[in-house]
Each structure stands twice: as structure tokens, then as C-alpha cells.
Amino acid sequence: MEHFINAKEDMVTQAIDGTIAAAGGKLTRLDGYPHIRVVVRSDWDKSKVALVSGGGSGHEPAHAGFVGEGMLTAAVCGDVFASPSVDAVLAGILAVTGPAGCLLIVKNYTGDRLNFGLAAERARAFGHKVSMVIVDDDVALPDLPQARGVAGTLFVHKIAGAMAENGSNLEACTLAAERVIKATRSIGMSLDTCTVPGSLKEQRIPQGMAELGLGIHGEAGVEQVASRGARDAIALISEKLAAGMPQTPHVALINNLGGASFLEMLILTETLLASEIGQNIRHVIGPDAMMTALDMHGFSVSLLELSNGDEELLAQAVGAPAWPGCNTVHVPEVLPLPDGLSPIRAPASQHEPTKAFLTACCNVLIASEADLNLLDAKSGDGDTGSTLATAARALIEAMDTLPLADHTQLYRAIGLELSQTMGGSSGVLLAIFFAAAGDASSSGLPMKDALKMGLERMRQIGGANPGDRTMVDALLPALEELGTSVAAAAAAARKGADYTASLTSAKAGRASYINAEQLDGHIDPGAEAVARLFEHLAS
């Protein structure tokens, strides 16, 4: 089973029950499972205009997550990517509509239009005041007469919902919803399609490609483009969003389509705000998963041109559990580092042989990045190569600021640089190694003994010993042989690194959490890095 579900036929009802259980008493539902699945505000008294929306499931937290004070009054849930029935929609309308009437907010899909539309007609026949708006915010296909309704729908929920909560009548809420729809533009991009539980996944998007302008049901996008990272992705969607976009203040809703990591979403947010259209974005909603397409590894951006009063309505507090809030974009004031973290550095000095030596060592680590990451993925989190390469690049960049002609100060300067640029425990340990080597060198010890003193201090603090499956297994024997020759040191380092592949129990680092079967036959990446450095020196 590729999904954490119980039975396919129970997915939607169990998801609804999970939403209600986690809502702190704010939500309830109508009886009628499994055919009628309607989530309702538990505090609703029918004294104001009701807002009802919904559609197929698979877009969680939409739409049930946006039921609450100041947003939706009820959400009608269909099967995954399928419109709810007319009876289900009618049940939702009848359950929440009082004398003030009901506004239906419908995304522009044929099934939703038909089922919500017919339910509205039947509700009117019962004597209820019902109006309906159709959201068509997708600009992927600008010439399409029936554009899709996507994440921009949430602007309508929020602004019309705030107006209804404040006592506006049905006509005013409807007019506001129609205005917001006209002023909203959305487009999405994804690196992969979604997987519908119980169905085969459509492998439509090749490796290294992304799809621009795809829908929230996995339907194909406008075009497939090369995937070149966040900046290129934002540039492509900005081009679509900017067509006809007025140079006036906007609010951006940055939506995770379900499978993007939060780290990616934050990078996309920063990139969007730094882009050409970012200068018009005054407020941001998200980044967050708000209207998803199951597990689609993508994102969408929705822009709303702000009118008078919209900012207050968007900022108004709500009782909907999934609403992330609307925040004003600010350029932060960057604070200076506290005293003690802006260290006194030794004066820079030039020494071309030392510069060439250090640069060559750094290039060895940079060239080994992918190999070391692959090794680390067997026993850790797969980032040893990247961590070392990042530190190596930073060291190359800082080369002309280092005291290259004074090796005692150089050890300390390298330790200081690593403590600031190299992440994780390995960065701290190597910073300790070089700082201690610098201290030993200042007391008159030769290079070999100074480095051994640095290793001893690193072992004392880090707790790693020979046989613990760490870089120590390669570094200690290499330093022992360094007085003989560099070739002997390289051979000792390689022997020590290869030895770690036979160690099925690690006593330090992330590998200590890995079972013997996963460790067997795989060299420790830190030891491999040491071996490669000494082999380079020997060559």
C-alpha cells in the first residue's frame, strides 16, 4: 500500500471525521454518510448570510478546513476529484440557510457548476434566497472561454466570508465575490503528477522537466519546460501572471500543491517577492498547503488586485482551522552580530604555494560532493559531501583574507572559517581540530605534532575513537605515518577508510542509529573524504 489509508471507500469520510476531531469543537457535520458529506460550523445560528462551497476531495485542507467564523459556513465534499451530488449540495444549503440567504462559491468545473447550480434552483423552489458565483482564476490558458477555478477561490471565501460575518446582505456579498473573482489570477507548476489512491500514477512529466499551468486534479498543463530551480520557475509563472496585471498593490497566496517541502515553499516565496512582480505584492498568505492536488510536487501562486477595504477583510480573524493568515510584506532590519561573534582576525598575508595547496585540497572535496553524499545516504542523511563542499567553496572565497604566510595563524583562521560556514557536527569538530592545531603550533610543535594535537582535542570533545566508524579511522593512521612520507600517510588513510566498510556498528554520528545490514560494505563518508585528500597530496 502506497498511502496511509484504511479502505479506499472510507477515505473521504475518515478525513472529514479527522478534520472535525482536530478542530476543537468548531466543526460538526450532517448525518448522511456516506453519500452526503457536509461539514458545518458548530456555532451557526442562521442569523447572517451563509457561505457554502465544496467540490471533490483530494484538495485538503480545502474545503472543510476553511469552514469557520469569518469564512465558509459549510463545505460539501465529493469523492476524490469528483463533484458532490445535487442532494449533498442541497442538504448543505438547507442546513445553513436562514432569512439572510446563501452564497454558493463554485469552482469552474462542469460537474461542480451543474450540481451546485441545480441544487441552488431546488433551494430557491423551497423559498430560500440563493445566489451563486463561479470562480475562474486560472490564467494558464488565457484564451480559454471557461478557465478553471483553482486556489484563488480562497480569496473569495475570505473576503465574502468576512463581509457576511460583519453583517453584509446577500447582494453585497455576491457583488464583492464577483469583484474578487475578476481581480484574481492564478497559475501552478509541478515537477510530478499526483497519485490517486487505488489508481496507477500517470508518469507524464519526464525527469528534469516541470509542467506549467497544470490543474488541481492532475490534468495536464499548458507546456512542459526544463526544471532549472526556483528562480526559473518563478520567472515562468510571473510571465503568465504579469500579462495584463495592473501596477497596483496586490496580495499573493502561495499554495503548496501537496508534495513540495516547506523548505522549497519558503525559497519560492523569497524568490517571488524578489521578482519583478514582487514589487507590487503588499501582503502574503502562506506559504502553506491550502488547495492541494493530493501529493503533487508543485506549487501555485494566486494574485488579487486589492481594492478599498480588502486589506482589513483579509486581515480579519477567522475561526477556520486551515487559514494561515494574511501578513504584510516587510523588509526586515538586519541586526548586527553580538559582541564576540565578530572575531578579531589575523591580518591577511599572501603565500602562493600555500594558496595553491589549500585551493587544490578544497577542489578535491568539491569534486567528491556527489560521491560522498551517496555514501552518506547509506548511513546518515546524505549531506556529508554537500557540507564539506560548501565549506570548501567558502574557504576558496575567503582565501585572500587568510594569513597564508603564517601557518600558526592559518590553522586558527581555517578553524574560525569552518565554524561559521560549515554546518552540522562535522563543522564544529573540524573547527576544534584546526583551532587546537593552531594552539599547538603556537607553542612550537612541528606540523605533524600540531595536527595530532588537534585530532586529540577533537576526539576528546567529540567522543570518537578508532573503530567507531568515523573520519578518525582514516585521519589518525594518516597522521601517524605523515612523518614517514605523504605516500605512506595516504596508504594508511585509505586502509583506515576501507576498514570502516567492515564495521557494522557505529558508536558516533548519525550512523550509530543505523542497523548493521545497512552499514555493512559501505565506507564511512568522512573517512573516505580524508582518504581522498591524502591520496591527492600523495599524487
From TrEMBL:
CC terms in the record's Gene Ontology section: cytosol
Biological process terms in GO annotation: glycerol catabolic process
Stored Pfam families: Dak1, Dak2
Keyword Transferase: yes
GO molecular function, one term: glycerone kinase activity
InterPro entries reported for this sequence: DhaK_dom (IPR004006), DhaL_dom (IPR004007), DhaL_dom_sf (IPR036117), Dihydroxyacetone_Kinase (IPR050861)
Top-rank EC class of the record's enzyme: transferase
Keyword Iron-sulfur applies: no
EC code: 2.7.1.29
Keyword annotations: ATP-binding, Kinase, Nucleotide-binding, Transferase
Domain annotation DhaL: ranges: 352-539
Gene3D superfamilies: 1.25.40.340, Dihydroxyacetone kinase, domain 1 (3.40.50.10440), Dihydroxyacetone kinase, domain 2 (3.30.1180.20)
Protein name in the entry: Dihydroxyacetone kinase
Annotated source species: Pelagimonas phthalicica
